[in-house]
Structures are given as structure tokens and as C-alpha cells.
Amino acid sequence: MAHFAQQEAQDGVRFTFDKWPNSKIEASKCVVPMAAVYTPLCRFPAEKQVLPYPPLRCRTCSALLCPYVQIDYMGKLWVCPFCFQRNHFPQHYHHMNENNLPPELFQMYSTVEYAPPSDRALPPVFLFVLDTCLIEEELTFLKMALKQAIELLPEHALVGLITFGTQVHVHELGCAEMSKAYVFRGSKEISKETILDNLGLSPSRRAFQPKSQQPGVAVNVRDGAFAIGVNRFLLPQADCEYTLGALLDDLQRDAWPVQPGHRALRCTGTALAVAAGLLGACVSGTGARIMAFLGGPCTEGPGTIVGKELSDPIRSHKDLDKDAAPHYHKAVKFYQGLSKQLVEQGHVLDLFACALDQVGVAEIKVAVERTGGLVVLAESFGNSVFKESFKRVFEAGENALGLAFNGTFEVICSKDVKIQGIIGPCASLEKKGPSCSETVIGQGNTSAWKMCGLDNSTSLTIFFDIATSEQSNAAAQAAGRPFFLQFLTQYQHPDGKMRIRATTVYRQWVENVGNGEELVSGFDQETAAVVLARLASHKMETEKYFKELDFGRRSLMQHDEFAIFPQFLFNLRRSQFVQVFNNSPDETAYFRMLLNRENVTNSVVMIQPSLITYSMQGPPEPALLDVAAIAVDRILLLDAYFSVVVFHGMNVAQWRNAGYHNQPEYQSFAQLLQAPLDDAQAIISERFPAPRLVVCDQHGSQARFLLAKLNPSATYNSAQGPPPGGDILFTDDVSLQVFVEHLQRLAVQS
């Protein structure tokens, strides 16, 4: 695995196979698809410099100059490895020779970042959309978090505020004399033109205003001036911090009365539509984020997910399977339209949902995912999961998210490779061409995608196909010959300027997959597990009668390179991504959104949690994810990504309750108790969203957070009981051993 991790550190990309079969027929025999997990903005190594000039492109296929081009130093030419076009070097490259190469031609610059000179730095835009149908305590928590976030924003960042309950209030921050807001009814869908007209942002309204009454000049932000609405609804943080603070201090719960036995009238869809229209009129084409804070389900207007009466239950997975959720499809259709509008504008929708009940994450998912938005799901705005996660969005330093805006992503590949599509936080730009495969997975039929929002851990899963072998390209696909892939990402850097990052990699063709030795020698088990998890989740959402992926092929069991792959499949089969029992549709949508956007390392932890044991007998050490790891004199630290569990064995808990750790002669025991807590805090501090911390004892009620993740090798009906001080699981689920034996039987039969 170290080899694959090294590739990820250098280029931010990992493939399921490092060597690919050289024919479509041979590729079809592989259980795992040919795919790559790519992190466009993975942290750039400090030793690499950002190049302060524009990249050099091939005049035919637009691929960027890379270390794999052929160079004619005498003729000052370079040959593109993708289309074999001969290109002339421009004048400023003419000093180049074998001993004096530009950085982009060095092997270590297989990933290179360009920062072309520009006089324009676009400010980031944050539009906060607040739900006021909250209890007083929750509203107070939310206002405190927002005040803290506003203080952390850069002074030049543009900020706006919309609040909603039964109606939508757009606050005009540019009116210093008094508090002023525009109100929209939440009970009906409002067109974009109506929104702009009511806000005084439509061209017709501005045209009939006398110049003396016009609050500004309607000029695009990209032209170096502020749009007319920027002077009123979006102000720099330095100019509106006091005004926003005063507005938040005066903000009250929604005044509309709630009838007994009814839910609050909450017009979430209308509020988000108004926010999208406002940003579209003011800052279209530049980086902006709508940050929505929801405390309950939408019950009014477009995007409604449940009726107003409490007797009307919110949809469950069973309702969705039986098509018995009357509001679901209409709400999803509304948010699909909203996502299309946001993608065209280049804007992001972030979702912070904090409630004990569902709020509609399952319906809003399409808009959040296609715009590359962040998502946090918690029980309360006072919960540490929300507070720590929201604070990290704006923090600078080593653990900063590195938020970027308004990006585009493009894949250029050798002619023998086709692109099937992408699963991840992006939207198709419908750029069709010869590199597009007829088989479509996720966002397909294109070679370019929009990424409105991305950060240092945002990852995409790109699926590839092998072109049909023909006489013209048989030589190119000969075993041992290389093929090339280039990933291009253009985005708005946090400093406001546009940058381009290019990653160019090559892999080799192999033949005779039936033998398999060469193919499986480059098999990445972790990446394969992540790709299959994302593919399974995608198919469960898009195919009504989806069956389990065929994991039982003979190739899975014949080679050492697949030694731990069955463990990943076992845990994937039991995970919340495949099993929806005991999870709401909102929770399932939340889990799958994070699985689809995180890098391989984080995604593997989601599928197969890590377990570390702490004891007096020695230093901390990894343990198998098995019930046999439980012992009365041990502490276990489980990292399940969404939760971090510190589990005390029965004896350890009794010693702690007796206060031994407070006595000087038992300092070693005090250190034992503190070590897993310190490690848990280290995990929480560098993860987004912040996981839930659970501290529990053996046989305690919260021990279920650990027990649910363990392999049930010892259950209530096992022939042999647990070892002394151990534990058993009360479950009928099969163990890893039974699962592997089942795979072996399938392998023999196939």
C-alpha cells in the first residue's frame, strides 16, 4: 500500500489498477472497474513552486506541456503525447536546452500549478440563509456561531444575510440609517425575474430610475467594479460587521403562530431560490457560497417535504421504496432546477442541518452535490459537531480547508482510453467528444465538468473504458506500451485570482488477463474498495432493482494482492452506505455525499473503521476490528470517521470510578486514560465535518457505537463462549470467516 500512498502524495491520484488490460474484452473480465480517485487540490508540496505564467497548450487537443512530451531542442518543437501534434515553443522558451529545462518538464512536476499574472482579485462571497423557525435556545446557538464566523472572514469578503420562516426576508446591509428588508411570500414559487424586480435589480427597474436615485452602476464584478446589488445586499466584511452583529442581536424567532398539532410554516425552497436569484444578479460568474442553516423540514411552498400537520409523518426509506412519499419527487425536481441555476452561475450551496427530526437533506442532496457544497448534519446548533465544523470552514492555518471557488475540471486521455463518467461533487458541462464512452456512469457523456466549490480533500471518482481494438491502434495498445491521462483543474484561489492545476500520469497496457499475474500486481485494494462503495451507492439510488455487485469471482481469491480486499467487502456490505436499516433518508444521503467527496484514505475509514488498543502492558497498537479485541483491562479507540469512540474495559472503568488516576502512585494509569482522549482530539481537530466523540464503558448503553462496527466472531449462539474478560455480540449477522468461506465457494463454482 505504501507505493500507492506515495503516488497519492505526489499527484493526488490513485487507480484501481496500475496496469490496464489492452483490450475491451479482457477489461470486461475484471470485477473491479478501471477507475481513478483524484483529488484536484490536494495539498501542494512545499518544495514545488507555483509557476507565475500561463501554461503552454497543444494547439490540437489543448493538453498542457508535461514531462512526457518529446522535445526537438534544435527545432524548438514538442510533440504532444496525447494526439502526437508537433507544436512550436514560444519565444520565451527558446533559451531551453537539455541542461536548462523549465519546471513543467521535470518528472517531479507531473503535478504543476500555474498562477498567471492578473490585476484582478475577486473577493469571496458568503450569503448566510438562516432558519428562524427555531426554539429560542437553538436560535441563540446559531447567532453565536455566525458572529464568530463573521469575525474570521477576511475583510474584503462580501457578506449578505437572508432569514426565513413563513416568509423570506432579504436584509439590505447598505442601509445604515435604519434596518431595511425585502419580504417574499413563502407559499408559492417565485420566478427569478420576479425576485430581481422586487429587489430592484432587474434591468427594467434600473432603466426607469433617475440617475440621482440609482444606488450604483450596474457593472459586472469581473470588470473591476461592484454590481448594483453589491452596494445594498452584499457588503465587505469590514464595512458591515457592526451592522450584521446588530441585526443578529435583534433577530427573533419567526412571529407566525403555529397551530396546535401542526409544524411550523417553513419556506426553505423559496428562501434558497431568492438567495440564488440575488447572487445571480449581483456576482454571477464569480465565486460565491450560499450557506443555509436549517432547523426543521420545509412545510411551505416549493421544496416541501412533509405536510403541516404533525400527524403526517416524514418519509422513510420504506415510503421511498413503495413510492408512497407524496412530496418527494416534486421537491427533488425543484432542487434539480435550483442546482442547474447555481451551476450556471458558478455558485455553491452549503448545508448545515441541525435538528432531531429530518430536514430534507435527501431532497436537497442534488443541489449540494452538483455545486460541490459542504454538508454538516447534527442534532443541535449547540452540538460540538456543528460548532467545530462550522468554525473550521473559516479557520486559517495548517488545518484550513482551502476553500476554492468557481472551478472547471477536464480530463484529456490517450485515444485508446474512453471516459465513462464521474461520481462526485461536480456537474456535467456536456462537452462531448471522441474521448466519451457509450457506457455512462454518473455524470457522463462529457469530458469537462463544473466544480463550483472544492477544497483540499474534494475528490472525484473517474471511470474509464478501453477503446475497441482496431488495426490502427493495435500497436499503441501493445503490452508494455504507455498511455497517458491529464487532469486539468481551473479554479478561483482563496486569494481571488484564477489558477490552473494539471496532473499528468501514465500507465502501461498488459495482456493475457486470464493469467492475471501482471494485472493484479498493480491492484490497489483500498482504492478498489472505495470505487465499489461509490458505485454501489450510486446504483442503489439510480437503479430501482439493483442487485449486489458480483464480488464472488475467482480472481478475488487466487492472488495475495487480494488478501485484505474481502475484509473491505465484508465491512462495505454491513456499512451505512449499503444498509439503510435504522437510518433515515437524510442520514443515508449525508453519509453517501461524504463518501463521494472524500479522498481514499478518509473513505477507507468510513468503510472499514480503524481500531487501536491501549493497555498497561505496552504502547498503543492496532487491533483487528473484531469482538475479540474487547478485554476488561484495555481501552479501545475506534475511528469510524463519523464518530470517534473511546471504549473502557470493565476493570479500567472500575479503576477510573474509584479515582486511582488521581493518586500520585498511579500516574501511569492516569496517562493510560488520557492517551486515547488525546489521540481522539487529534483526529477530531483535523477532520471535516467534525466527528462525534463518544466516551463509553463496557456493558454501558453507548457501547453500541463500538459493538455495531465489530466483526461478530463470537455471538450469543456460538459454540464457544468469549475468552475471560471478553464479550459477545447479540446479532444474527454472519462473521468475516463465514463471508470469506462463502466467497471461496462462489470462486470454486465460477
TrEMBL record:
Name all Zinc finger Sec23/Sec24-type domain ranges: 55-93
Q: Name one GO cellular component term.
A: COPII vesicle coat
Record's keyword terms, sorted: Cytoplasm, Cytoplasmic vesicle, Endoplasmic reticulum, ER-Golgi transport, Membrane, Metal-binding, Protein transport, Transport, Zinc
UniProt domain Sec23/Sec24 beta-sandwich: residue ranges: 404-510
Q: Which InterPro entries match?
A: ADF-H/Gelsolin-like_dom_sf, Beta-sandwich_Sec23_24, Gelsolin-like_dom, Gelsolin-like_dom_sf, Sec23, Sec23/24_helical_dom, Sec23/24_helical_dom_sf, Sec23/24_trunk_dom
Please tell me where this protein is predominantly located: membrane
Residues of the Sec23/Sec24 trunk domain: 123-394
* A matching Pfam family: Sec23_trunk
Q: Name one GO molecular function term.
A: zinc ion binding
From the Swiss-Prot or TrEMBL record, state where the protein is found. Answer: Cytoplasmic vesicle, COPII-coated vesicle membrane; Endoplasmic reticulum membrane
* Span of domain Gelsolin-like: 620-706
Q: Which residues form the Sec23/Sec24 helical domain?
A: 554-604
Q: State the annotated membrane topology for this chain.
A: Peripheral membrane protein
Lineage, top-rank taxon, reads Eukaryota
From its record, what is one biological process in GO terms? intracellular protein transport
Q: What's this protein's family per the entry?
A: Belongs to the SEC23/SEC24 family. SEC23 subfamily.
Functionally, this protein is described as follows: Component of the coat protein complex II (COPII) which promotes the formation of transport vesicles from the endoplasmic reticulum (ER). The coat has two main functions, the physical deformation of the endoplasmic reticulum membrane into vesicles and the selection of cargo molecules.
Q: What is this protein called?
A: Protein transport protein SEC23
Per the UniProt record, the lineage of the source organism begins with:
Eukaryota, Viridiplantae, Streptophyta, Embryophyta, Tracheophyta
